[in-house]
Amino acid sequence: MKTANETFDAEPGRKAVFATFGWLRGLACLVVFGVVPQLAGHSQVPQYNGGLPGVERSSSGMAGLPENANPRPDGVRALRDAMQQQDNAKRIKELNLQRQKDMTSDTVKLLELATQLNSETKKSENDRLSILQLRQAEMIEKLAKSVREKMSSTVGN
């Protein structure tokens, strides 16, 4: 009879084989469960970014950082921002100069129309204005409103 401490070995050589190759089985499991998922993740096609502009996906499928995610500007971005500010200031200055030129030409036109209407009303002996004079008065009024709006607004301020 056998005691409880003794075990029954039907195949005595099998136990020695498993003991010898146990480290090999552990290595095989490590390769299967550790390396294969990494390889499969890199071989997948990048995912759809949801239609968001500026959000690009890396090869791992993760969203990349937007360009303005770095709070400390690097030299290139600082130079680009300075150039954009100079370009914006130049454009604003040109727009203000164009607005002043338009305002000057409209004022000259307004003065000409007003003096012409004034001379026509002095020539006529009637106290009434003709249809042409009424239209000219309406044109003077519209031009005066546009000049007033141009004087009150500036570009960039």
Number of H/I helices: 4
- Spatial gap, N to C terminus: 106 Å
Order of helices and strands: HHHH
The Cα radius of gyration reads 43 Å
Largest sheet: none
Low-confidence parts? none
Please state roughly what percent of the residues sit in beta strands, choosing from under 5%, 5-15%, 15-25%, 25-35%, 35-45% or over 45%: under 5%
Structural class: mainly alpha
**Overall pLDDT level:** 75
Kindly state the percentage of residues in helix.
55-70%
Morphology call: rod-shaped
Task: Let me know the number of strands.
Answer: 0
Molecular structure report:
It is a single chain. By secondary structure, this protein is mostly helical. Among the domains are: 11-41, no CATH class; 93-157. It is 65% helix and 0% strand. The chain is built from 4 helices and no strands. The protein has helices at 12-20, 22-43, 75-123, 131-152. Helix 3 packs antiparallel against helix 4. The longest helix is centred in the middle third of the chain and has 49 residues, at 75-123. The chain is rod-shaped, with a radius of gyration of 43 Å.
